[in-house]
């Protein structure tokens, strides 16, 4: 991507405004960190997609993500719990 610095700064600022990221400072450098875990964020995106595009309102298939190189085993279990656990609050 050939983004300018100002575009990147604007995008990060908007993500902070939406509580997707939090900003801190370390050694005088701005550091951005996620507000939610990877699994929590992915579960929200998946639930929205399955509900609005595929019109599925129930347990969601997470087995397809089990061998993902992006999710650890712990994150996959967390994702499955967020999507299919008894305490669904997404």
Structural key phrases:
2 domains; 44% helix; two-stranded antiparallel sheet; 3 helices; elongated
Could you please describe the fold and organization of this structure?
The structure is a single chain. The protein has helices spanning 5-17, 38-52, 73-84, and strands at 21-26, 29-34. The chain is α+β, with helices and mostly antiparallel strands. α2 (38-52) crosses α3. A two-stranded antiparallel sheet has the order 1-2. It starts with a helix and ends in a 6-residue tail after the last helix. Helices cover 44% and strands 13% of the residues. It has 2 domains: 5-34, no CATH class; 38-84, no CATH class.
Stretches with pLDDT under 50, minimum 5 residues: none
* % residues in beta strands: 5-15%
Q: What summary fits the major beta sheet?
A: 2 strands, antiparallel
Instruction: Estimate percent helicity.
Output: 40-55%
**Total beta-strand segments:** 2
Strand order of the largest sheet: 1-2
Q: Tell me, briefly, the overall form.
A: elongated
Quaternary structure classification? single chain
Outline the fold blueprint.
Blueprint: H1 5-17, E1 21-26, E2 29-34, H2 38-52, H3 73-84
Antiparallel strand pairs: 1-2
What's this model, at a glance?
The chain has about 90 residues and is an alpha+beta fold. The chain contains three helices and two strands, in the order αββαα. A hairpin with a 2-residue loop joins strand 1 and strand 2.
């Amino acid at each position: 991507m050939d983004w300018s610095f100002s575009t990147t700064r604007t995008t990060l600022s908007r993500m902070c405004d939406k509580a997707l990221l939090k900003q801190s400072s370390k050694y005088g450098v701005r550091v951005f960190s996620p507000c939610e875990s990877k699994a929590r964020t992915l579960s929200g995106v998946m639930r929205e997609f399955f509900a609005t595009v595929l019109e599925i309102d129930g347990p969601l298939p997470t087995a397809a993500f089990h061998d993902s190189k992006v999710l650890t085993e712990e994150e996959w279990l967390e994702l499955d719990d967020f999507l299919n656990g008894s305490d669904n609050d997404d």
